[in-house]
Write a structure and sequence with these properties.
Strand content: under 5%
Order of helices and strands: HHHHHHHHHHH
Number of strands: 0
Distance between the termini: 45 Å
Largest sheet: none
Low-confidence stretches: none
Radius of gyration: 16 Å
Shape: globular
Bound molecules: fe (iii) ion
Number of helices: 11
């Protein structure tokens, strides 16, 4: 099978643009995304590519992120101005296209939404969002053992759990809470309730 992207070259380049911690995290997300793709019958290479690139803009300083946005007509919301780290998702899409020549809309969407989530995510959106949360280097989130097992069984139910825990955590700090996260939670909570009703 022909590789669509040179993932080793991507990894090499990322290593140069990320600090040591971020690069380790990136590799954790790459392989966790691959494992989740196996569990859910998704394209492995796409999952690995999105996993590798999801934080490709994370180590760009905030003022430079804002500059890239204004130069390239990338809209910056009020919440993103006050918490510019949120911008690494949008800027990540730009960097993935410009510096890594990735145009696959599924991969770009997964990068775009990996920080906040959104309602009705695609399989790859969910794989990357969850791989980012559960990769082996993570250790701070609550219920990690449960959530890790759940991610391999049921992506939607896992989204519900993770968004619930995330909102409980971010709720203490509304300045960094993007409305997309609340919208995502409402969507997956509704799904969760409907399915519980169906399974009764
Ligand atoms: Fe990120
Ligand atoms: Fe990440």
């Amino acid at each position: 099978m022909k590789m669509r992207y040179d993932l080793n070259a991507f990894a090499k380049k990322l290593k140069k643009h990320q600090d040591k911690y971020r690069f380790q995290h990136t590799q954790g997300v790459r392989y966790t995304a691959a494992a989740l793709a196996m569990a859910h019958g998704y394209d492995l290479e796409k999952a690995e590519t999105a996993g590798l690139l999801h934080d490709c803009a994370k180590c760009i300083p905030n003022d430079k992120k804002l500059k890239i946005c204004s130069k390239n007509q990338i809209a910056v919301s009020e919440i993103e101005y006050s918490a510019p780290f949120l911008l690494h998702a949008k800027v990540g899409v730009y960097v993935a296209r410009e510096k890594y020549k990735v145009e696959d809309p599924e991969i770009l969407s997964a990068i775009r939404w990996h920080t906040t989530g959104k309602p009705d995510m695609s399989i790859l959106d969910k794989i990357i969002y969850l791989a980012d949360y559960i990769e082996p280097g993570r250790n701070k989130a609550p219920n990690l053992n449960t959530v890790r097992a759940l991610a391999f069984r049921d992506l939607d139910e896992c989204m519900y759990q993770v968004l619930k825990d995330t909102l409980a955590y971010l709720g203490n700090n509304p300045k960094t809470l993007d409305s997309a996260t609340k919208d995502a939670f409402d969507f997956y909570e509704k799904l969760h309730k409907e399915r519980r009703y169906e399974n009764r």
